[in-house]
């Protein structure tokens, strides 16, 4: 009996240890992982005619969101809106320290893992506007670093990583359930053009799409920050790809969506609380997802 109890105790301890270290998956209503990739400054009409983007939306598990709008000009307020549910009235690309809860708080409340992959990010909770030699990393395209409750918390801030970490995370099957990927200012079209960016994107994306550690139950969300044309209507290209998408739906969802729809979609998928801002009234892009 005594030995039996010791063995039981050891077994229970071992199981608890495994549960804590194995990075448990929180099942979602539509998807188990959300992977966002964001590009820059392109009008809807330009992007929708890009050969690679139209190839992606026309795949069996692809869908174009043909009525999707950015919320402001220039870049930064759009990035802030995605994870904060409000632009806070920001109308420039300056450095801000934003207080109050954001999407990361909602995710962590439910134990959902997250990471922000930033190309050319120097790491170590780097605070400056551009990379050390003004290279292609830009803080204005990294909304996470503007959140005070992320940059003041070393554990959280360590989840903003250099994008080169992604290949390691795929190889160890540890891509988080919420992943946000910002290419550098060449690869995202900011300092180049869409042809350059999509050549990069295709070379980056296609090999990864062959790997289940990247794709399993993953909803890929491909978007832009704002239209190139300043002012209204600020319509941008956005699309969905992955097994959570219903096949054969003519590859077009013309529901009105905005950057605020991103937080709403994630909240609905994992039954999270909300931010109490413009996310609450936004429409989630779940119409053609399999539940
Ligand atoms: C978001 O919501 C607030 C108040 O609910 C509002 O003042 C603001 O104009 C909305 N829009 C943006 C783009 O943040
Ligand atoms: C934001 O906070 C950091 C300290 O965490 C400080 O160094 C920086 O000056 C602040 N930036 C602004 C724009 O207030
Ligand atoms: C950061 O990522 C870039 C590519 O995104 C890579 O060239 C660079 O070596 C990485 N730097 C560090 C410190 O990991
Ligand atoms: C980077 O750019 C900023 C703003 O244009 C400038 O103030 C700074 O001196 C530059 N730093 C380097 C290392 O070139
Ligand atoms: C885009 O940039 C490339 C150089 O990277 C250039 O060869 C090409 O002509 C540009 N395309 C347009 C439409 O400006």
Automatic annotation (TrEMBL):
GO BP, sorted A to Z: phospholipid catabolic process
A Pfam short name: Phosphoesterase
Hydrolase keyword on record: yes
Name the UniProt record assigns to this protein: Phosphoesterase family-domain-containing protein
Origin species: Rhizophagus irregularis (strain DAOM 197198w) (Glomus intraradices)
A GO term for molecular function: hydrolase activity, acting on ester bonds
Keywords: Hydrolase
């Amino acid at each position: 009996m005594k030995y039996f109890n010791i063995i039981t105790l050891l077994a229970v301890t071992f199981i608890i240890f495994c549960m804590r270290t194995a990075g448990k998956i929180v099942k979602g209503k539509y998807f188990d992982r959300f992977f966002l990739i964001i590009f820059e400054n392109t009008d809807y009409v330009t992007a929708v005619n890009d050969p690679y983007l139209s190839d992606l939306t026309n795949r069996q598990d692809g869908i174009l969101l043909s009525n999707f709008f950015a919320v402001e000009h220039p870049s930064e307020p759009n990035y802030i809106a995605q994870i904060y549910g409000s632009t806070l009235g920001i109308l420039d690309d300056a450095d801000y320290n934003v207080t109050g809860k954001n999407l990361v708080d909602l995710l962590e409340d439910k134990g959902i893992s997250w990471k922000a992959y930033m190309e050319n990010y120097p790491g170590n909770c780097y605070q400056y506007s551009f990379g050390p030699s003004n290279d292609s990393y830009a803080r204005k395209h990294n909304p996470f670093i503007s959140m005070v409750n992320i940059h003041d918390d070393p554990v959280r801030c360590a989840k903003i990583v250099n994008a080169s970490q992604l290949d390691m995370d795929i190889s160890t099957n540890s891509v988080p359930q919420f992943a946000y990927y910002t290419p550098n200012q060449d690869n995202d079209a900011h300092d180049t053009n869409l042809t350059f960016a999509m050549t990069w994107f295709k070379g980056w994306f296609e090999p990864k799409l062959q790997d289940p550690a990247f794709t399993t139950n993953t909803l890929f969300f491909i978007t832009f920050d704002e239209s190139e044309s300043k002012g209204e209507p600020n319509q941008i290209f956005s699309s969905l790809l992955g097994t959570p998408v219903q096949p054969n739906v003519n590859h077009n969802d013309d529901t009105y969506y905005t950057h605020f729809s991103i937080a709403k979609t994630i909240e609905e998928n994992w039954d999270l609380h909300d931010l109490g801002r413009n996310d609450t009234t936004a429409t989630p892009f779940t119409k053609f997802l399999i539940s």
